[in-house]
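Sequence dictates fold. Next comes a concrete instance:
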Amino acid sequence: MKVLAAAVASLSLLAATSHAEPTSTSQGTNPMLTQDDVRAVSPALERYARDRLFGDLWNRPALLRRDRSIVTLAALIARNQGNEMPFYLKLALDNGVKPREISEIVTHLAFYVGWANAMTAVAAAKEVFADRSIGADQLPAATPSPLPLDEAGEADRASRVGQQFGTVAPGIVQYTTDVLFRDLWLRPDLVPRDRSLVTVSALIASGQVAQIPYHLNRAMDNGLTQEQAGEVITHLAFYAGWPNAFSALPVVKDVFEKRNATGSSAPR
């Protein structure tokens, strides 16, 4: 109990001190709000943030705080919420997310939520990296040696997508194969489980439920457990809103049921 109480106090203190002084974002937008700012408008919201968000949600055991940081960054980037990024980038580093992993998260999400959203994240991360004296030696190479490719699995995916959409938009079908699954997904500085965690989180946060079955199955094949996947939705209810979380629930439930029925990955 003492360890848990100390952990809660530590995270709550970090939240309080990190919000103590407003800091401008690198894009010159509004500074991040302090706790006093929030309390001046909504004492109830400040209480929920202190008691429920940092005092409760971030301490639930189904996800490590490192994972929660990854999920939160994915949601913020997906929703282009630059004002909150500096605080959560610092928290991610404190929770054990490596600079090279943050760099890969930003790169990955350029393809899944758009280039402009990734550029917002670049601007925020640039300042945080400078503040933490994070240099190029802690970042991934532009062209690293790739992870091994599951040739049979990728050939099957490419064939199915080609049959469905090859005559509709052959360009995106080709880019999906060449850039995403034979390049981006093979970059080694974000392990496949975490890359899938980022993708699923961004899809839920942006309301892209049609894409969830494929990527959630992939995530679970890559090591994400059913309990962890369920907790991702719980976490994202606070950061992407209850409607997005509940829109994802039926889709996620269907994936769980099909996997449980077959004892392995379900058809995607």
User: Anything to note?
Assistant: Residues 150-189 form one domain. The longest helix spans residues 242-262.
